[in-house]
Design a protein that fits this description.
The protein has 375 residues and is of the alpha/beta class. It folds into two domains: 162 residues, P-loop containing nucleotide triphosphate hydrolases (Rossmann fold), CATH 3.40.50.300; 145 residues, no CATH class. It has 16 helices and five strands. A five-stranded parallel sheet has the order 2-3-4-1-5. Helix 11 crosses helix 13, helix 13 packs across helix 14 and helix 15 packs antiparallel against helix 16. It is globular. It starts with 15 loop residues before the first helix and ends in a 10-residue tail after the last helix. Bound molecules: zinc ion. The site of zinc ion (ZN) has 9 residues, from helix 3. Zinc ion binds next to helix 3.
Length: 375
């Protein structure tokens, strides 16, 4: 990274709307009671929250200069070691249970202690990561806490899937959306921060669909790039195979992706949260399935682009000849149908559909181009 340590301002990329909202709030005497930072895994929520914490804890007398990134408040905020910052998550509550204690009781106990008075700053910040992974009982306890009046606490909830939060929690929070950034902006960022060639930077920006965390994971992890290439090559080859082989292949792909997700690169597979929060096997598999569907969808879109003779525009240009070949054989109609099906599968997985079943279903729609003797 080549940021001057004390250069003021936000360090996360893009997000003009969310930035404007928090700057306005900061300028008008503080934030509301609770904020909800929401966005897809890999969108850069962690970096945005860093900025938000620095802005909130910055002690620079000049409001317009905040976050100054030079004062103690900014530094402690960015290191997440500020005395008035408490950080929790469903995973942390699970880990922090005492013997015989339920996760709900552990979460209640944590919420109670989080409500203590600030020691250095005007208010304490209670940061809850992966809030959407909390069960309903915990969310109800959280809701009670959010309902208690206090001007000495700011709650920041972070969620991949806000729809998994109780509507009553959502309605109490100011939503800050962290989403994809324009490709040119992301590409320039990758060139500056990773010293990539323009062609490489552009390729990662494209395959990441503008998600900064995902783009960095591709830029930083050869294993992740290899996995993507292998997965897409395998999917293309399945066009020539029947059901039984497809179902077996999809199980292998899910297993491999889940293994990759167990020790994920920092920005991959929803690991926007800090590294020490352990994740449950089910959530790792679900994230793996989501990632697979995203890769699959991007492959399908590339095939559509290749089908109209514009393969140079496909982010997976490394597969150029295979893309063109498959696109010509299966035709546009089935690919369009596949793309919309995958979008539905993605949505279903976000709503907790069973991963293997959802992928099997997608395999039934994936175009098949068998030789005549096959069923
Ligand atoms: Zn500062």
């Amino acid at each position: 990274m080549i940021e001057a340590a004390s250069e003021p301002g936000f360090r996360s990329l893009g997000q003009p709307t969310a930035r404007r909202a928090v700057r306005q709030a900061a300028a008008h005497g503080g934030f509301g009671r609770s904020l909800l930072v929401q966005g897809a895994p890999g969108a850069g929520k962690h970096a945005f929250v860093d900025d938000l914490l620095a802005l909130a804890f910055c002690a620079n007398p000049e409001l317009a200069t905040r976050p100054c990134n030079g004062c103690r408040g900014c530094r402690d905020a960015r290191a997440r070691t500020h005395a008035d910052l408490v950080i929790g998550s469903p995973e942390a509550w699970r880990e922090g249970r005492s013997t015989g204690e339920s996760i709900v009781a552990a979460a209640r106990r944590w919420l109670l202690s989080a409500a203590g008075a600030p020691v250095v700053a005007d208010r304490r910040i209670v940061l809850i990561e992966r809030a959407d992974r909390a069960n309903e009982q915990i969310q109800n306890a959280l809701l009670k806490t959010l309902e208690e009046p206090t001007d000495r606490h700011l709650f920041i909830l972070v969620a991949d899937e806000p729809s998994r939060l109780l509507p009553t929690i959502r309605s109490r929070c100011q939503a800050l959306r962290v989403g994809p950034v324009p490709r040119a902006e992301l590409s320039a960022y990758l060139r500056d921060h990773r010293r990539l060639s323009p062609a490489e930077a552009d390729a990662y920006a494209r395959i990441a669909n503008g998600l900064v965390g995902t783009a960095l994971a591709y830029a930083d992890h050869q294993a992740f790039r290899d996995w993507r290439h292998r997965t897409q090559t395998e999917l293309l080859s399945l066009v020539d195979r029947g059901r039984a082989e497809r179902f077996a292949a999809v199980r292998d792909l899910l297993d491999e992706t889940t293994r990759l997700g167990i020790a994920p690169p920092p920005a991959l597979a929803g690991s926007d949260a800090d590294a020490e929060t352990a994740r449950t096997p089910a959530s790792v598999q679900r994230d793996a399935a989501l990632l697979l569907v995203e890769i699959w969808l991007s492959l399908t879109r590339d095939l559509l682009v290749a089908g109209v003779g514009r393969v140079g525009l496909a982010p997976s240009a490394a597969l150029e000849s295979e893309l063109t070949d498959v696109a010509m054989r299966v035709g546009t109609g089935p690919l369009i149908r596949m793309a919309s099906h995958l979008e539905r599968v993605h949505e279903g997985l976000r709503q907790n559909a069973a991963p293997k079943l959802a992928l099997d279903g997608a395999m039934l729609i994936w175009p098949m181009h068998l030789t005549p003797r096959d069923p």
